[in-house]
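Bug #77: duplicate submission created two jobs. Keeping one. Sequence:
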Amino acid sequence: MQRLISSVQQKGFTLIEVMLVILVIGVLMSAVQFTFQSSQSHQQLEKAAARFAGVFELASEYGMLNNIELGLLVTDEGYQFVGYDGTKWTELPEVDALAGYQLPASIALELTLDDLPIENDMLVSHELFQDEQDDFKPEEKPIQPQVVILSGGDISPFSLAFFYRDEFAQDELASYKVTGLYYTPLTIEGPIFDE
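Kept job's structure:
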C-alpha cells in the first residue's frame, strides 16, 4: 500500500510557486507603469514647447505679411504676443492664436536672452521713462515685451525652457528648451535631464 501512495506523482504547482509568479508579474507591471508615466509627462512638456514654437513662427509670418513689429511677453503663467503701433505695445485682439496663452499649472517657463536669465525688474530702467509713465493710469502698466520680432523676420536671440514646477516634478527633472537665434525656425531641444 505504501508503494501505491509513493507512485502517485503530484500534478500542478505549489502555492509558493504560484505566489512567486504573481510577484514577478506585479514587479514587471509596475516597471511598465513607471515608464509609461515618465514618457507621458515628457510628452506634456514636448507638446507645450512644440505649440510655442509653432505659434512663434505664425507670429513671425504674421508680422512679415502685415509689416508690423511684434513682441513676445513671457509671464510666470504663460506667454502672449503684442504688436507695436508706432507709439506703444498693444495686444493683438484680431488674431486669436497670438492672444495670451496660459500654460497648465504644472509647467513653468524660464526665459533667457543671450544666455542671461531675465528678471522683470531688470528689463528697462523705470526712471528713464518716468514722463511717459505719468501718462498712464495708475492701474495701467505699459507693456514691455522681452523678445522682439521685426517685420523683416529677424528676432532677438532667446531661449525659453519648459519644465515642471517643483511640486509637480518627478524624480527626473526633465525640460525642453526652445531656442531662437536671429531668425526662424526655432529649434527644440529635449528632453534635457538635470541632475
